[in-house]
Amino acid sequence: MSQRMQQGQPMIVMSEDSQRVKDKDAQDYNISAARAVAEAVRSTLGPKGMDKMLVDSMGSVTITNDGVTILKEMDIDNPTAEMIIEVAETQEDEAGDGTTTAVAIAGELLKNAEDLLEQDIHPTAIIKGFHLASEQARQEIDDIATDIDTSDEELLRKTAETSMTGKGTEVNKEYLAELIVEAIRQVTVEDENGDNVVDLEFLNIETQTGRSAGESDLLEGGIVDKDPVHDNMPNSVEDADILLLDEAIEVEETDVDTEVSVTDPDQLQKFLDREEKQLQEKVDKIADIGADVVFCQKGIDDLAQHYLAKEGILAVRRAKKSDLEFLQEVVGAAIVSDLESATADDLGFGDVTRDEEDELFYVEGEDAHGVTLLLRGSTDHVVDELERGVNDALDVVAQTVSDGRVLAGGGAIEVELAGRLRDYADSVSGREQLAVEAFADSLELVPRVLAGNAGLDSIDTLVDLRAAHDDGQITAGLNVFSGDVEDTFEAGVVEPAHAKEQAVTSAAEAANLVLKIDDIISAGDLSTDKGDDEEGGPGGAGGMGGMGGGMGGMM
Ligand SMILES: Nc1ncnc2c1ncn2[C@@H]1O[C@H](COP(=O)(O)OP(=O)(O)OP(=O)(O)O)[C@@H](O)[C@H]1O
Ligand SMILES: [Mg+2]
């Protein structure tokens, strides 16, 4: 090989396994990955959205309608897709609901951005336009939102019901909404400025299988789902002094491995006596400080159980750490981790009552600081999905109580926002204007998908909705059951404004993050589908095509 030819060769600075995708191919690769993720969850949106069944590598099954749960459970191995999943996670952390909406909008923004890129509009212009539109959208949401009286329980219940519609919670949503609003009311305090502060730390969710969701309950205080360690213990204790113990009531083991060799029976007896004495001392200590009930996070030795029963003390072993932490608030106790130094001051005070049917204890504090929402469902899968739905609704009500701003759902807010953004676009100069318009179009994905999932014509629906909004009907949304356009606010489809703001902002930011990339340098194989390797080499997005198709197939 001649010297000259070698000089003409590109300098290789990356390892053989690494891959590089540039410019248009990089954009294509990223956009199709992001869209694949968004499309995977779209079919779950709204009251008529369907659920997904996810089976993990261990074979365990999750059945859910919750956007963030679907995306977390899907075994996604693609860097861009993971950025979109972060949108759902942020939405879950910040708002608790609206994860499907946020991801769907992000996907639609990228789809529309792709069209603009084809028209040779530079990514930075699109990014600028999206940013302007999202800032404007936040202002408009604030303008459109209705300020409510946060003590209006009827309206709070509606926000909870809207959030639970279309989920496992659907059939019992009225009853559950009542429990949820009451639960939030109990853990809400006013700060010095007169603002509502919802402290979800004081709210505990417990689940039980075996009965129907309609038999769920709100209890003042906490629950311990355990049995007494000994049959001869009292079952219920009123006005009890309660010890929360994070130490085993067992013989203390030495740190080092020891071997004790006994040469005559006396020695053995002495050894056993010593152990007995140690256990007796521990129980005496518990009795001395005046405890009537012990919830122990660790084990309790058989003999100690017997001593405790003799003292008439109710004891429970291997209680959940989270339960003890919650009980701390409920009965005003300290969790004791060294029994020897415990005093009467560490004890809490309250009533402990046994529910024989459900085989659990209710623990009520003097002036109960905490409440427990006991969710019931026939099977584990039912209860799990119920819990996810109730969690969303709790966040929604908590936000509404502290923020006080709500919006009309069923696509009403999205269509109104889109209209206003199109007006705003007129004031934006240059190519950014097109991006603002594309942003407006993307928001209208929500009513389109709501209609599509309900088996309605999405174009007709959008045309009707736009006409109503042009007519000044700000709260005109879709009744997914009749297919008519109606005032969804009046109909009780109400959502918190904060969640929508968050969804729009994080969708825009994620889209912009993806659009700014024009070069992907990967240390390993970029393709997720190894079978596509021949076509999916550097400079091609073949591997992603496989993924997009695969996930699209989930719809
Ligand atoms: N009765 C109803 N009629 C019309 N639209 C409704 C009704 N109830 C809820 N919606 C709409 O459904 C959408 C919410 O659907 P869904 O709860 O499935 O998704 P999400 O809240 O975005 O995500 P996730 O709940 O999975 O985190 C909102 O746009 C809401 O306005
Ligand atoms: Mg929801």
TrEMBL record:
It comes from the Archaea. The keyword Nucleotide-binding applies. InterPro entries: Chaperone_TCP-1, Chaperonin_TCP-1_CS, Cpn60/GroEL/TCP-1, GroEL-like_apical_dom_sf, GROEL-like_equatorial_sf, TCP-1-like_intermed_sf, TCP-1_chaperonin, thermosome_alpha. Residues 525-555 are annotated as: Disordered. The keyword Metal-binding does not apply. Residues 537-555 have a biased composition (Gly residues). GO terms for cellular component: cytoplasm; protein-containing complex. Keywords: ATP-binding, Chaperone, Nucleotide-binding. GO terms for molecular function: ATP binding; ATP hydrolysis activity; ATP-dependent protein folding chaperone; unfolded protein binding. Belongs to the TCP-1 chaperonin family. This is TCP-1/cpn60 chaperonin family protein. It comes from Natrinema thermotolerans.
